[in-house]
Give the backbone structure.
Amino acid sequence: MRTSILGATVALALVTGSATASEGPKLAAQNWSFGGIFGTFDRATLRRGVQVYNEVCASCHSLKLVAYRNLGDVGYGAEEVKAIAAEFEVTDGPNDDGDMFTRPALPADRFAAPFENDKAARAANNGALPPDLSVITKARKGGSDYIYALLSRYAEDPPADFELSDGMYYNEVFPGHQIAMSPPLGEDAVEYADGTKATTAQMSKDVTTFLVWAAEPEMEERKRLGIIVMIFLTALTAMLYALKRMIWSDLH
Amino acid sequence: MTTPTWTNPIIKWIDYRLPIFTFTQHHLVEYPTPKNLNYWWNFGSLAGVVLVIMIATGIFLSMSYTPHVDYAFDSVERIMRDVNYGWLLRYLHMNGGSMFFIAVYIHVFRGLYYGSYKAPREILWIIGVIILFAMMATAFTGYVLPWGQMSFWAATVITNMFTAVPLVGEAIVNWLWGGFAVGNPTLNRFFSFHYLLPFIIFALVFVHLWALHVHKSNNPVGVDMKGPQDTIPFHPYYTIKDAYGMGVLMLVYLAFVFFAPNFFLEPDNYIEANPLQTPPHIVPEWYLMPFYAILRAFTQEFLWIPAKVLGVIAMFASVGILALLPWLDTSKVRSARFRPIYKQVFWLFFVDCLVLGYVGANPPEGYLILLGQVATAYYFLHFLVVMPVLGIMEKTRPVPDSISAAVTPGGTSGKEDT
């Protein structure tokens, strides 16, 4: 009975926790390098993801919580970070004359926002606001699997009975299926520095990995520390249990 | 209990003036505890441990948090990214809330099963109910602080409940908000409440323990301790048992923190609050879902009282009714072990709470509306009809004369639960 009560309690957590996560179209679970408790970000994937992000996504989306210097945490050298940052312009100031000015971004800057403000972003995007992508994989049900599916599962021809509004695109996983973002990752949208073939699936996977890292830059450290903590706690709890048995033995 | 004689002169000097050592000796070391407590009795101290963790992590989080509508969301993410081990503090705090409720709910259900609320522990129980109310208020205000979409809209939905108050409802809500909508003043005061309430809970826990230490713990047999043969000293027997329990709890708690930190959170709360965009589906945290289901169960006015007012009353009453349980339960026998029918009814009630949780987690559509109403009706039926009637009708099994008689081989009654 005791185990069944515990089971029921866990079930309560699972039922209520996952009850709302089961809506929407089915997402295929991808085999992510960062999956599981031992998962880490594959560095080559991440590098390609940075390239896709900077060359494609960054022209419409901001990434305001991530700084260029953060790339140093995943294998980029100081000079490399500087070079990547310098490809973007940021607004700074006011200077001594009281004017704002633009300058190349520095490693300390957050990823440069493509638009001055939300209104400007909407004006340039047919009225739609491209969301900030800093925590996008934490902010969507399905996380990385959803983002991957969103990027790779556009349909050129919507189902016959589907009415698509002007300037909208049909996406298999987006809620309501109408999305304002045009299919962003056509074949060979980027030319990978490492020579990998830039298929839609490849780019989607790479940039999704980058976005997961952007949302959870602490993930590798978190899991590494977690494993040590679990080993320690298991040993400690086992010893406490043995001690408990020993202390209580004179009662039985 | 004898007053200990201290040999160390410093301890002796202090204890003569402020008897903290004697106090500790009486309440943590010699403290007579029933010798037959099972592991369900671990959860009170576990909840206490989690409360301390929550207060400690919360104090450090508040050092880097900015309670302003323009900065709150980003400041939480900044804690996660730029504060040393900020992600650990924040995930400990976030998941700690869930662990606190898990521990406390188990603690409450243990009390229900073994009749811990019965005389002479009514006040102990009522203080517990007040703690539960305070916990809910703390959890709710805490949910608002990251200023995500769920934060904002949960704050809007819950504060709007007060418009149900006749005549002055609108004024009360404006007063709560500090304006005409949930906004910066609301966030500021919620932060203030969220910092204040845990210390009130902490104080209430001491009163709870004070009341506990008067008549001491109930036990699985539900008969009073009759003498030294029924008790063991708290230390080392229950200190080590609690320490072991804590190890197990930490394994579960930290597994979530390190490997699935966002398991209990709605993804929508990682979208910054936007007053112009209502999420399709507003939900509270899992531990409030049964009460949310009760709130939404009332869909029609009754005796000219609007449905909304009924829902609000029912929601508060669903927790408050626990305080009346010592008098609603008319049975003279405490423990469900000797109440064959109550034992079944208890599990029915437990399942009813799970059903309410499930209904609260999902949009009120289709059969879920009726299911929520039936489950809500049964929830109150359990307290208002089943408990009073069952106590009178039920033919209980013979209760052992003492704890010793119950746990000694050949004693009056079996020791198995079920």
About this structure: The longest helix of chain B spans residues 184-215. The two ends of chain B are 36 Å apart (CA to CA). Residues 92 and 257 of chain B are 6 Å apart (CA to CA). Chain B touches chain A through 53 residues (CB under 8 Å).
